[in-house]
Write a structure and sequence with these properties.
By secondary structure, the chain is an alpha/beta fold. The protein has a single domain (2-121), classed as 3-Layer(aba) Sandwich (Rossmann fold), CATH 3.40.50.2300. It has helices at residues 10-23, 34-44, 65-75, 90-98, 112-121, and strands at 2-6, 27-31, 48-52, 80-85, 103-106. Helix 3 (65-75) links the parallel strand 3 and strand 4 (80-85). Helix 1 packs across helix 5 and helix 2 packs parallel to helix 3. The protein starts with a strand and ends with a helix. The relative contact order is 0.19.
Length: 122
């Protein structure tokens, strides 16, 4: 399985990618912006994307995860997307699910990395 991990926070990005690589046999690709992810979609065609909602700490005008999710689902409808966010917002979670995310996972949730491994295995 090919998995993209998209997070603008370098420590979060590395931690998630390292965990996926050590806990699974997935090929993991890392991106700090959604735009970088989109540029590689055609060439790699990932099976799944673990996508952060807020992606503008490094690049202030970067698209947020919801916009990237909508692009992915429009052009690659079979690609699974798990959206990550630090926001405990039911409305945001429902909006991402309606836009095509399979799951909404809170950043910092206990065992977050293991939960994502389990979700990808489903």
């Amino acid at each position: 399985m090919k998995v993209f991990v998209v997070d603008d926070e370098p420590l979060q990005l590395e931690a998630m990618a390292d965990h996926l690589e050590s806990a699974t046999s997935h090929k993991v690709y890392k991106f700090r912006t959604g735009e970088e992810c989109i540029q590689r979609l055609d060439a790699v065609q990932p099976d799944a994307i673990v996508l952060d909602y807020n992606l503008n700490s490094a690049v202030p005008d970067a698209a947020n995860g919801l916009h990237i999710l909508e692009y992915v689902k429009k052009h690659f409808p079979t690609t699974r997307v798990i959206l990550l966010s630090g926001q405990e917002s039911y409305a945001l979670a429902m909006q991402t699910i309606r836009s095509g995310a399979e799951h909404y996972v809170l950043k910092g949730e206990p065992q977050m990395h293991d939960k994502i491994v389990k979700l990808l295995a489903e």
